[in-house]
Write a structure and sequence with these properties.
This protein is α/β, with parallel strands linked by helices. It contains 13 helices and 19 strands.
Length: 404
């Protein structure tokens, strides 16, 4: 906390006119920040982003080493944003950052929580402590003008809505709307080509279209629009996602000349993997093939849950390494294997590149292949060393090797 006060004084961030939006939650943070960036930029605002993929604002971009920067670097970047004329900064705020007081001294204009599902229990101990860490974002509110934006489809979100005000609740379950201001979404269509949704807030209705797929992305769109409403946008300014470029490593299609349906996704929690696979299972593919692994030196309890999600929705489950770090990769596979009981077709291959090659060899043009867990990452951590590794590049190599 003392470092936060020092950084705030040194960089004069307390005097900044930048409106600061903090987004926390287990899944959906990165996609929501990208959506908010597009929405507010389309409305003519200068926007800066700090998140898992990169730190960026007009005239500057760098790869992100951490979802949320360290306290000193965070204030330094906000000062640089102010110099560049940024009006709104949208930042992902991890539970680790909250627990470690990295965001001390920041005056958030809005705090957003997307959902709370199992992750990082190796650090927090249990779900209640994890939830408490997420709720710390909502304590950075020195005045009544600041607002919470909370997903009421999520059980933990509903708990937070009951005790936090002022707030905008958002979700796809209109029956869950609380006494607070609510933004409710209705899925009009959801196909492999995109979605159309109807929004309702304070008696006003509007529709939006997007190339994004998956009902979970409907929730991310709602979060972004709730932020837009808080920032003063009108319903007529909301339909700006028809040609959304997407987010690196978030259900990102791997283009290829063979017409193969291949996606790379960052899903590395049971809930995220479940959501992505359910989306693909509902589309018109012959089979779903999934390559997945579990990170080493992280929550061991989620490993069989990850495998269970893969087993439920996959016709072929390919279990491999993710970032094993200092753990024995075979031990990680052993932990995950418990969730694969009852699966008809399982391939185990500890070498991730070889696992991807085997998955590509297994598929036909009528199938869909999901390579989950690493998404935008361009490295694999084995032991204490990072080595170059990209799921997208490896799958492209495999296609070339198999098809020529």
């Amino acid at each position: 906390e003392a470092l936060g006060e020092l950084a705030m004084t040194y960089f004069r961030t307390a005097d900044s006119r930048i409106k600061l939006i903090g987004i926390t939650g287990t899944n959906g943070k990165t996609t929501t920040t990208y959506l908010v960036e597009q929405l507010l930029s389309s409305a003519g605002m200068k926007v800066g982003v700090l998140g898992t993929v990169s730190y960026r604002w007009p005239g500057f971009e760098q790869e992100a080493p951490l979802t949320t920067p360290g306290c000193w670097q965070l204030h330094e970047m906000l000062a640089k944003m102010a110099e560049a004329g940024v009006e709104v900064a949208v930042m992902e705020v991890s539970s680790h950052a909250l627990h470690q007081n990295r965001v001390c001294g920041l005056n958030f204009d809005a705090a957003v929580i997307t959902n709370v599902t199992q992750d990082h229990l190796d650090y927090h101990g249990d779900m209640e402590e994890y939830f408490k860490a997420k709720c710390m974002l909502f304590q950075h509110y020195p005045s009544a003008l600041k607002r919470g934006i909370i997903n009421f489809d999520d059980p933990f979100g509903r708990r937070l809505l009951e005790c936090y005000s002022p707030a905008i609740g958002y979700g796809m379950e209109a029956s869950c709307a609380t006494g607070s201001k609510s933004l409710c979404g209705e899925m009009l269509s959801c196909t492999g080509d995109g979605m159309q949704l109807k929004m309702t807030c304070d008696g006003e209705q509007w529709e939006i279209e997007t190339d994004l797929i998956g009902k979970f992305n409907g929730s991310n769109l709602l979060a972004a629009q709730a932020i837009g409403l808080h920032m003063g946008l009108t319903s007529g300014q909301m339909d700006v996602f028809k040609e959304f470029d997407g987010v690196p490593g978030r259900l990102e299609r791997v283009r290829n000349d063979q017409g193969l349906n291949i996606f790379v996704d960052y899903a590395h929690t049971p809930d995220a993997l479940d959501n992505v696979l359910r989306t693909l299972k509902d589309l018109d593919f012959s089979r779903v093939i999934t390559v997945f692994g579990c990170g080493g030196d992280r929550d061991r309890a989620k490993r069989p849950l990850m495998a269970g999600a893969a087993c439920r929705y996959s016709d072929v489950a390919v279990l491999t390494s993710d970032n094993p770090r200092t753990e024995n990769p075979m031990q990680i596979l052993d932990d995950a294997r418990k969730g694969l009981k009852g699966c008809d077709h399982v391939i185990e291959e500890v070498d991730r590149a070889e696992a991807i090659r085997k998955a590509v060899a297994e598929m036909t043009k009528d199938d869909v292949l999901l390579i989950a867990g690493k998404g935008h990452e361009t490295y694999q951590i084995i032991g204490t060393k990072k080595r170059d590794f990209s799921d997208s590049e490896e799958v492209s190599k495999a296609i070339k090797e198999i098809y020529g």
